[in-house]
What does this fold into?
Amino acid sequence: MTTTSHAPFTLRSIAVPAFGPALLFSIGEGAILPVVALSARGLGASVAVAALIVTLIGLGSWFFNLPASLITLKFGERWAMVGAAAASAAALAAAALSPLLPGGLWLLAAAMVVVGMAASVFSLARQKYLTEAVPVIVRARALSTLGGVNRIGIFIGPFIGAAVMQFSGISGAYWVGVVAMAAAAVLSITIPDFVAKPAADDGVPVQQATLRSVAVSHAGVFLTVGMGVLLLSALRASRQVVIPLWAEHLGMDATQASLIYGLSGAIDMLVFYPAGKLMDRKGRLWVAIPSTLIMGTAMLLIPLSTAFVGLLLAALLIGFGNGISSGLNMTLGADFSPDNGRGQFLGIWRFMADAGATGGPVLLSAVTAAASLGAGVAATGVLGFAAAAVFAVTIPKLKHRRNY
It folds into this structure.
């Protein structure tokens, strides 16, 4: 993709191809997330098995991050996104039909794995596209907006699904997902491919990097800044579990818990663009440290809450901290990714982030089982302070790095 030299770049100029597919894909995900466990239970699964089937989405995404980088490299960002959205649409159609087919529970489980794998490819391809399409001076704004768009889609998807389910039952949520994913695939076709290849000064093409070579050459980045990203992802994932669990611990009903969770999500969606602008103008540390400290503090406050208002205030603080960190992981990944081997680097980067997202709730569960829920929540809060410390030491304090 090229831009004319006489016209300044604006995010609006690429808004539809850059953010449209992401919004549609996340709407599709949001529509089905609340009903997967219910579908599994309807097909005869136990509570534990139903929870496992929901988890398969995240596991499929986590373990497919590295293959996703190779797929994106082979087919390019556009066709990787088209293929991923189409595959997800097909998987959701299979999930919608699972009650009518033999072995429906197995079909539902397989469909969720495919959705996770497709999400991995789609997410990596769109991140790589924005990293290469957007000038570095507005990189954080672009990737924060991408993170915000994802949040908006996940937020409104369940409402669209709920509206359709009023007329077609639980399968309606999956058909909303099918339509949204198919639309994302169609819109992704408008994304231009990047055809430039890295070349040496003498014009001879540089040998393409491999996953192994990128992992070795950037091991220092993965073991320093990457650990901060892992901790931040663990903190983010834990907060999604902590709020409803503590609400239940205080004896609140589902309506009250949902209200607190929803208001926290609303705050989350309101602050992503200003945070991206701050990162572009002042540097990544201006968001990385405050966001992790705010979320860590809020998590430590949750065990001290004894009623609706106290939990609501802590949840709103978590939403604000998470909102200002929108796009932070992606921005840091883009900052440190090399021109040759960017896809492979981002695949490893996302693998680490997803490892944290999986490990955070596991830590919460382990500490809760060994001590108490309050101790488990406090332990996850400590992750925020650990992430802040790692970022303070490892993120360059200069506004711009060498590749800015």
In short: Residues 1-6, 398-404 have pLDDT under 50 and may be disordered. The domain at 211-394 is CATH 1.20.1250.20 (Growth Hormone; Chain: A;). The first helix runs from residue 15 to 32. The CA atoms of residues 268 and 323 lie 4 Å apart.
